[in-house]
Design brief:
Elements (H helix, E strand, L loop, with lengths): L1 H6 L1 H27 L4 H7 L2 H18 L6 H9 L4 H7 L2 H32 L8 H7 L20 H7 L1 H18 L3 H6 L1 H8 L2 H10 L7 E3 L1 H6 L2 H4 L18 E3 L4 H24 L3 E9 L3 E8 L9 E5 L9 E4 L9 E6 L3 H12 L8 E6 L11 E7 L4 H15 L9 E8 L6 H16 L6 E7 L4 H9 L16 E2 L4 H11 L4 E7 L2 H14 L8 E6 L3
Parallel strand pairs: 9-10, 9-13, 10-11, 11-12, 13-14
Antiparallel strand pairs: 1-2, 3-4, 4-7, 5-6, 5-8
Length: 562
């Protein structure tokens, strides 16, 4: 844990600052509404629930301001590619984690806000039904029969129900819509739905526009009210609250108090980040989508993997980056992220697409059925990821699971070019590459690259530069028997490579122990594109095998996150 904090101190600092600001805003706003004299009469009806509702509302505004910033991908890519240190870049790699944390905090404060207002409306209603004359009952009946809107209780009469107020006022109706939109966005963001029903996640997440608009108008009804400044000067509650029964006698020293609602404040918090996100998410994407993309080559690989090689004027990339792809013939609105599998040194850019949902299956089907007419593709990006930093490490460990190998295709291709041209600026001295697949067909499209790398390393005298291992997790007795019969051959029977395929999963403790022993004073970057369970194992090993002495071996964990 200590090593993790050292490697991620900026992310920890940001997290602590964010939590601290939430606590400060809540406490500061709570005390304001609990102590301020202009809310004296409002508290007389609502009690502490007033302060709780307002404090949670302020925290909701604060987190709604932050929720879109971590997904402003162009901004993050600009920061990554400009003046960022490794520490700051690693913090930026946690953007989606922070986005989720902010979303959870919004859910928590929404629940608090709703519960507090349920108490508030119950007390507003109850104040009309008391059998004796109390200060709360007098306040509830004030000014409802007069012009000027100086009332305090939004429930105007004993016959008006809480349900009626909820669905006939701007504050009530917008609050219901906000809550429904939030529930739909959060539930459709679950890991299972994102992986198996991405389109559902994609469309429901755009309810954030409705969420934001309703948040801006939520305060228009002026449900939460305070005594006006003029009324405070004429009838201060400390002087007049106890003589409420004489307010009707037109006492010049204690007139009936008058109240006013708050103007909407949420837009002040959220308008700037919302405008930034809309600019880069829609306007900038629309501009980029109009730039022509030429598909130069289409390849159908085994295991239903489609490779598209493309060209686009002015397109510039780095290793490990990704793009968003849209196919208008399938859907005008859906954009899906794909890691670039080409190297920056190549004169085209490429992606590999595995059938993993309705949209990808439809895309593969469209290209399989194409005759002479190739469907139009629109591209937005590229955007930066953790893999961009791979050449900043002396030793790199690359771990891909299934189609998660795609960012490392770009890296390995770039290494092949660097070896060909004897790039002396290459800082990386050793690469360990692990690819874990369920079926043998998945290895097919990648083995040509590995074969080329094997040959290039032999010719350049750098046989030990790349140490790669392929692991097959799904096999049957026929495959195992076939491999056993051909075990003594020079090349692997499944892939045709010199390196033999392993059956099962890597023993990560053994792998990390060997790397730490082999490179006792190196900085090792560990890069993963794969599932969370694998990420937990690798992160644990990075902590466990990093030396407490900063001069000795240090493992830095990096995960693809988009």
């Amino acid at each position: 844990m200590g090593n993790w904090v050292v490697n991620h101190w900026l992310a920890v600092l940001c997290l602590v600052a964010w939590l601290g600001l939430n606590v400060f805003l809540f406490v500061h706003t709570f005390l304001k509404y609990e102590k301020d004299d202009k809310y004296y009469y409002t508290r007389e009806i609502l009690g502490t629930a007033l302060a709780v509702a307002r404090a949670s509302a302020f925290c909701l505004n604060f987190n709604s301001m932050l929720i879109l910033i971590p997904v402003c991908r162009n901004l993050l890519s600009f920061l990554r590619g400009s003046f960022c240190s490794r520490t700051l870049r690693k913090s930026l790699d946690h953007n989606l984690t922070f986005h989720k944390l902010v979303a959870y905090m919004i859910c928590i404060f929404t629940a608090i806000h709703i519960i507090a207002h349920l108490f508030n409306f119950e007390r507003y209603s109850r104040s009309h039904h008391v059998t004796t004359i109390t200060l709360a009952s007098v306040l509830s009946s004030l000014h409802h029969d007069k012009e000027g809107g100086f009332w305090l209780n939004p429930i105007a009469s004993p016959d008006m129900t809480v349900l009626y107020v909820t669905f006939t006022t701007i504050a009530g109706l917008s609050g219901v819509i906000i809550t429904i939109a939030l529930i739909l966005m959060v539930t459709s963001s679950m890991e299972f739905i994102r992986r198996h029903y991405f389109e559902l996640f994609w469309y429901t997440h755009h309810l954030f526009i409705i969420y934001m608009v309703c948040l801006w108008i939520h305060g228009l009804g002026g449900i939460v009210r305070s005594q006006t400044e003029k009324s405070m000067n004429e009838s201060h509650p400390h002087k007049c609250a106890q003589s409420f029964e004489k307010w009707d006698d037109h006492d010049p020293d204690c007139k009936e108090p008058q109240f006013e609602g708050h103007p909407p404040e949420s837009w002040k918090w959220t308008l700037a980040p919302f405008a930034l996100y809309i600019f880069e998410r829609f306007l900038l994407r629309f501009y980029r989508s109009q730039q022509k993309v030429v598909i130069t080559k289409v390849v159908m690989h085994p295991s239903k993997v489609l490779e598209l090689q493309m060209k686009k004027r002015g397109f510039s990339m780095e290793v490990g980056q990704y793009i968003f792809v849209n196919c208008p013939s399938i859907s005008f609105l859906e954009w899906h992220p794909f890691t670039l599998t080409s190297a920056p040194e190549e004169d085209f850019f490429s992606i590999h697409i595995r059938a993993a949902g309705d949209w990808t299956e439809n895309l593969i089907r469209v290209f399989e059925q194409q005759n002479s007419l190739i469907p139009r593709i629109e591209v937005d990006g590229p955007f930066g990821t953790a893999s961009e930093d791979v050449f900043q490490y002396e030793v790199a460990v690359l771990v891909g699971a299934g189609i998660g190998v795609t960012p490392f295709a770009s890296i390995l291709k770039s290494i092949w070019f660097k070896l060909q041209h004897s790039d002396h600026k290459l800082k990386t001295q050793k690469i360990y590459f692990y690819w874990i697949c369920r079926e043998t067909g998945a290895f097919a499209w990648f083995k040509d690259l590995l074969t080329s790398l094997e040959q290039e390393m032999e010719e350049s005298g750098k046989v030990g530069f790349l140490n790669y291992r392929l692991f097959l997790t799904g096999w049957n007795s026929n495959i195992a028997g076939h491999v056993a019969l051909n075990f003594d051959k020079a090349t692997d029977i499944l892939t045709g490579l010199k390196q033999k395929t392993f059956f099962g999963r890597p023993m990560w403790d053994n792998e990390f122990s060997t790397i730490a022993t082999t490179h006792p004073k190196s900085v090792v970057g560990v890069f993963l594109c794969g599932p969370l369970t694998l990420a937990k194992s690798l992160r644990k090993c990075c902590h466990q095998y990093s030396s407490l002495d900063p001069r000795k071996v240090q493992f830095y964990f990096n995960q693809e996150n988009f």
